[in-house]
Amino acid sequence: MSSLFFIIATVAYFVGSVGYFFYVIRNSNSVARAANIALVIGFAFHTVGIYILARKFGYLPVTSIPQTLSLFAWTIVLAYLVFQWRFDIKILGTFVSPLAMFFMLLSPAIPSGVVHQIPVLKSIWVVVHISLIFLSNALFAIAFCAGIMYLIQEKQIKKKTFGVLFRRLPSLEKLDKTNYICLLIGFPLLTGGLITGFIYASRVWHGYWHWDPKEIFAMVTWAIYAVLFHERLAVGWRGKKAAIMAIIGFIAVIVTFLGVNIFLKGHHFYFRVS
Amino acid sequence: MGKQIILLGLSHKTAPVEIRERVASISANDRTPLDWLPQLKKIDELFFLSTCNRVEFLFTTDEVQEGIDEISSKISLEIGQPLSSIQGHIYIYYNLEAVKHVFRVAASLDSMVVGEPQILGQIKDAYRESVDHRTSSVILNRLLHKSFSVAKRIRTETRIGSYAVSISYAAVELAKKIFGSLENKSVLLIGAGEMAELAAEHLIHNGVSRIYVANRTLERAMELAARFRGTTVPFDQIPENLEVVDIIISSTGASDFILHYDEVKSRMRARRNRPLFFIDIAVPRDIEPEVGEIDNVYLYDIDSLQGLVELNLNERRKEAERAEHIIEEEALKFDNWLKTLEVVPTIVALKEKAEKIRQREIRKTMLQLANNSQNLEESLEVLTRSIINKLLHDPILFLKRKSVRESKNLYVDLVQSLFNLHEIQENKESVDKRSRSNVRELKRKACKFK
């Protein structure tokens, strides 16, 4: 039942991606509006699908990689919709919708492995831990997109070579501000998510730190964003450097999030690929 | 042949400013060529447009050459020199071409700065003038109203006006791509010069709030500062001021660089890396090119701005093609309307004739009724019959007269389609056919019963 909703959501994200692609080529606001509506519809179906799964299992559907990817795509679209509504950066959709679609398509492509009914996942700490981490990651995904957009736009202005994107992309100021806001909200969320994770770990496994690969990579990711956070606020880093850091940070997020689960072992793997 | 639409004028494309000024002088001091209309016997409607870039007369007439001659001689009388002396600067468009020209002007495709919006307002004002002077009527009213809607259509459907095609506009466009909004941004003007001042003006127009002026001669600096309501900055303290300004426009006559890499680089930390945008329009350049390599610093010289202008010109050319297509389309529509207008007088005359017959006949009937010479039923019989006879009298006479001609078939066809006689005959035939087949049917049925 829920997979039908996911399929519809994926199709809608696909339509949104195509629409936003055409928006770049043919600067038409009505195309952008239609693409945005497609994303909203996809998001609605996606939400219902996740809700059905959550009802079925009795906890957040994060026990298999497909479920996790789907939830990740969902939070990214959520963050995008909020940004679109607040800042009206139409072209953000051009970058975000393929990203969401990519995770949705990737989701069934990865073998789901064995799904156990795991009582530990019902703890409120886990729900908070996962929610915070996912929200921060979604914001970092937006910052990643804004970072790419910034680098493209800045290169055009610096090198004085103006392509199609010059007119579609917003000002450097707006892109940098997007980066800043994502970091400003995302970093505390990530920090909170990690802390709840440690608290939970100490209760279940007796001890905050287990040299679990995921823990190590998460700390690396956190350190990258911590540096960016500090430099931005204290020294006034901005622009290109901040954009590059946001891109590096998000790559670390992906590695932590996917790479570790697929290639390494540790106690984050109730759903180990067998 | 119906009314002809003629447009006669000159613009920045055909005439230098001295000549435009001389011709434009005919409308100075409350005088307007619209007042000439009563003396212009050959001209029906008149519209006059005068802006700093063009002077145009738009009029309708039955006799093209006479109309043009009449208005030309009036113009040369007014400007005190024969029109032939400026013949080379004048263009004349006829009918469809005139319509297209009016549309093009209104849509700002013919402007010096293509896409600038003022021209439409100027046309609207000029049109109001001609309405006040009652010099425009059916055709020009329609044409000008149409030109407003065409201009609006082009504005919404193409991006003709959205490309910065001058150095100073290009500077503003770039500033917006760097800073987003220009509100609360400040500009430092180093040196003076027409282009620099123009760029500063555009930036202020787009929201820049503070202006600083640095110049080698303080007097000139103060003059400029007064004009832009800014403050002066000592010329040798320019680097120090890089911490407070965002956009620098430099156009001094200095032979060496006046701002160097180190002077800018060392100030970026104090600025907390907020972007700096240098516009160097001096030749030779004022700012060391390496400055542009610093993070969050953007340096444009006159050539690189020109590059953006070229690009925009190209984009705009594409948009202009789309606009021309719209104009073709709308001009043809207008032309179609104009053609229907040509039959209007005939329709009016036809109606008047019928009305005259009706009134004459009804008067007769009333007279007879008053005299009690006939009863009502008879009178109505006579009345309706005589109206029909009188109405059809001329067409029938016409047809009979043509019946001996070779071309009679043409007229027969014409009258048949004029009164829709084909249909009546067909109806009659089909009724006949039907009744015949009915008879046959009845006969067949009757046979069966036998």
Write up what this structure looks like.
- The complex is a heterodimer of chains A (274) and B (450).
- Chain A is mainly alpha-helical.
- Chain A contains 9 helices and no strands.
- Chain A has helices at 2-25, 29-57, 65-87, 92-109, 124-159, 164-168, 172-204, 213-235, 239-263.
- In chain A, helix 3 (65-87) packs across helix 5.
- The longest helix of chain A has 36 residues, at 124-159.
- Chain A is globular, with a radius of gyration of 19 Å.
- Mean pLDDT of chain A is 82; it is low at 270-274.
- With 450 residues, chain B is an alpha/beta fold.
- Chain B folds into 2 domains: 4-163 and 314-341, 2-Layer Sandwich (Beta Polymerase, domain 2), CATH 3.30.460; 167-310, NAD(P)-binding Rossmann-like Domain (Rossmann fold, 3-Layer(aba) Sandwich).
- Helices cover 56% and strands 12% of the residues of chain B.
- In chain B, the strands form 2 sheets. Chain B has a 6-stranded parallel beta sheet with strand order 7-6-5-8-9-10.
- In chain B, helix 3 (95-106) packs across helix 5 (138-157) and helix 4 (118-132) runs antiparallel to helix 5 (138-157).
- The longest helix of chain B is centred in the last third of the chain and has 41 residues, at 302-342.
- Chain B is elongated.
- The two termini of chain B are 72 Å apart.
